[in-house]
Specification:
- The protein is of the alpha/beta class.
- The protein has three domains: about 5-120, no CATH class; about 130-260, NAD(P)-binding Rossmann-like Domain (Rossmann fold); about 290-455, 2-Layer Sandwich (Dihydrodipicolinate Reductase, domain 2).
- It contains twelve helices and 22 strands.
- The strands form four sheets. An eight-stranded mixed sheet has the order 8-9-10-5-4-11-12-13, with helices on one face. Strands 14, 15, 16, 17, 18, 19, 20 and 21 form an eight-stranded mixed sheet that branches.
- Helix 3 (about 70-80) packs across helix 4 and helix 9 (about 290-305) packs across helix 10.
Length: about 475
């Protein structure tokens, strides 16, 4: 048999194994509310090729490809356990099993590492939490996709309504069409139908009310059967406590803003300071996409090396608040054509660091350039460290953070030599460290951090909503 035939035979064998994994993953998700992960990436509703690609991605982190032959035994062991709701990372199980020298059978090792989710220890399934979207623009539609995707077993978060201003004839049909097709993020994964008579969008079986209102104080959400809901304001119209409090209507319990909050509104970056949210806090900001991109890597560097000062320069895709062609705009420079120019502008991300990392004494400055791409940005984080370091040491640290630390859902890592911005469309991480571009000399480190300023940020928003809704199940094996 030739080398080519060997490779093809090996591929077909791995395809067969991945096919056998799909029903196990689906059954765990639907029947037990267990989300199967591979190094923090969900395998739920993934195709054979997607499962194989996710296993291959582990090579970027661990230096070698993770094989489905290694992870299948752990998945089979999970299927035989009396599991309760949880997120279980079979990639982490396989990695820790390799490092364990006790010689335990896979089933015994798996049972030990997920003991908190089995038998008498398992938690009860939680009632679904109602979610309302106020606004249905770029971020609103992506959050809608994520919420529908995560409805899964019927528990967790449930998108109940979308509030918008009426746009004219066939408004609901046009909005459903924008949810169904996206020029950047592609087709919606599922089915969408429109119930014009009752004013609803039906997405993957989820009935979503379309509520038309010009003023948040004019809506009584209880009239739609909505109760104790989390409302996500993605309009950016109100950013202080007084304005956002207008949403606290009958049926609404909490308000989450998808923009930097002003005044005493807490700015939250999931993975960094989300656990500081008080239970009785009703108004929360998820800060900006750039703040979410720079704060987790900044924390990772500060924890290991200390940071004395820093500057962030963001090269940011153009956004909907700029003009397509030169025209009047309230802000300087943003009136100039977005797809034709690089546009110097300001960023509040640097000043927002203090809210997310109050213990960081370093002064962080920042500026931004908008460029003619529709999505994916890069933040160049220039840091003076508290001690000298070697480039290889810094890269090893960031690689390990992306794999095994509590920040692994926020920080991704790539060493591909020819990576460009479009490669990161659809990334669910807040930031992706570009290893090839990283520069370290003495106590100076320059990190290049890619981020999908639309989808990656939307994932961070949903994580915050899951946290404040108590809809985020524990992850095993535990990461410390």
């Amino acid at each position: 048999m030739t080398v080519n035939e060997d490779a093809f035979t090996n591929w077909k064998q791995r395809e067969e194994i991945a096919e056998s994994m799909i029903p196990l993953i689906g059954k765990l998700h639907r029947e037990r509310d267990v989300t199967v992960l591979l190094h923090s990436r969900s395998l739920v509703n993934k195709s054979v090729v997607s499962i194989l690609k996710t296993h291959r991605w582990a090579r970027q982190i661990a230096g070698e490809e993770l094989s489905v032959t290694e992870t299948l035994p752990f998945l089979q062991a999970l299927a035989r356990l009396d599991l309760g709701p949880a997120q279980i990372d079979i990639g982490m199980l396989a990695a820790t099993y390799k490092d364990d020298d006790r010689g335990l059978p896979v089933e015994e090792f798996t049972a030990e590492h997920v003991a908190g989710a089995t038998g008498a220890n398992k938690i009860d399934r939680r009632e679904s939490r109602d979610v309302v979207l106020y606004g249905f623009g770029r971020i609103g539609r992506l959050i809608a996709r994520l919420l529908i995707e995560k409805a899964g077993s019927g528990n967790g978060l449930r998108l109940r309504a979308i509030v918008v201003r009426r746009g004219g004839e066939q408004d609901i049909v046009k909005r459903a069409s924008l949810l169904r097709r996206d020029s950047i993020h592609g087709q919606f994964q599922g089915t969408i139908t429109v119930d014009e008579v009752n004013g609803r969008i039906i997405a993957n079986g989820n009935a979503i009310e379309m509520i038309y209102a010009d003023d948040p104080t004019a809506v009584d959400y209880t009239a739609y059967g909505i109760k104790d809901a989390v409302l996500i304001d993605n309009t950016g119209k109100w950013r202080d406590r007084e304005g956002l409090s207008k949403h606290l209507r009958p049926g609404i319990d909490k308000v989450v803003l998808t923009a930097p909050g002003k005044g005493d509104v807490p700015n939250v970056v999931h993975g960094v300071n989300h656990d500081m949210i008080k239970q009785d806090e009703q108004i929360i900001s998820c800060a900006s996409c750039t703040t979410n991109a720079i704060v987790p890597p900044l924390k990772a560097m500060a924890d290991e090396y200390g940071v004395l000062r820093g500057h962030v320069e963001t090269v940011h895709s153009f956004t909907n608040d700029q003009n397509l062609l030169d025209n009047y705009h309230n802000s300087d420079r943003r009136g100039r054509s977005a797809p034709l120019n690089m546009v110097l502008t300001e960023t509040g991300a640097a000043s927002a660091v203090a809210k997310a990392l109050p213990d960081l004494q370093a002064r962080i400055t920042g500026s931004s350039i908008r460029v003619p791409v529709p999505d994916v940005s890069i933040a160049i984080l220039n840091l003076q460290l508290g001690r000298e370091a070697e480039r290889a040491e810094v890269l090893d640290h960031l690689r390990n953070v992306s794999l095994t630390s509590p920040l692994k859902r926020q920080i991704d890592y790539i060493s591909a030599p020819d990576a460009v911005s479009s490669d990161f469309i659809g990334s669910r991480h807040a930031a992706i460290v570009d290893a090839g571009a990283t520069k370290v000399e003495g106590d100076n480190a320059i990190l290049y951090l890619w981020y999908d300023n639309e989808f990656g940020y939307s994932c961070q928003v949903v994580r915050v909503v899951q946290y404040v809704s108590n809809a985020e199940y524990p992850t095993y094996p535990a990461v410390v």
